[in-house]
Amino acid sequence: MKAVASEGNCVIVGRGATCALGGVPGAFHVFVYASLNRKKRWFTETFPQHAKIAEQELVATDKRRSAYIKRFYQQDWTDRRLYNLMINSCVGFDAMVEATIAAAGLLSKGSVERTVPVVTTR
To answer: pTM of this prediction?
Structure first.
């Protein structure tokens, strides 16, 4: 992760990225959240065959994320102090991208490229 981040603009997706890159200059940490009802709707649409266990799976996933961050980084993954921006996914993907670019100050620098490396660490 650090090697990719050191090369320039990139997006790193994963629960440990904020903690792993906490001291990296220029890193901008975003927490995307949604209500349980919104997550359940997404889960049911994405995995209709598992709709009956949507809430159970979502709660279990959040517990695994929490345990991972506690174990490897001794942090609470929902601690807002770890993030530069927290945004509700209900605003939509394009709005989240635009808000993140603006909040990170990339619009004024003219350094925004729509194609950046994405590393998934989940």
So the answer is: 0.79
Spans of all domains in the chain:
2-120
Which residue, chain included where needed, has tokens 């709707």? Answer: 41
The one-letter amino acid code at 69 reads I
93: Cβ contacts below 8 Å, ≥ 6 apart? none
38-64 in b/e form (b: 16+ CB < 10 A) is: ebbeebeeeeeeeeeebeeebeeeeee
3-state secondary structure of 117: coil
For 42-93, the pLDDT digits (tens) are: 999 999 999 999 999 999 999 999 999 999 999 999 999 999 999 999 999 9
29 touches 83 (CB < 8 A): yes
Instruction: Name the CATH topology of 2-120.
Output: Rossmann fold (3.40.50)
| Angle (CA) 31 37 39, round 5° | 45
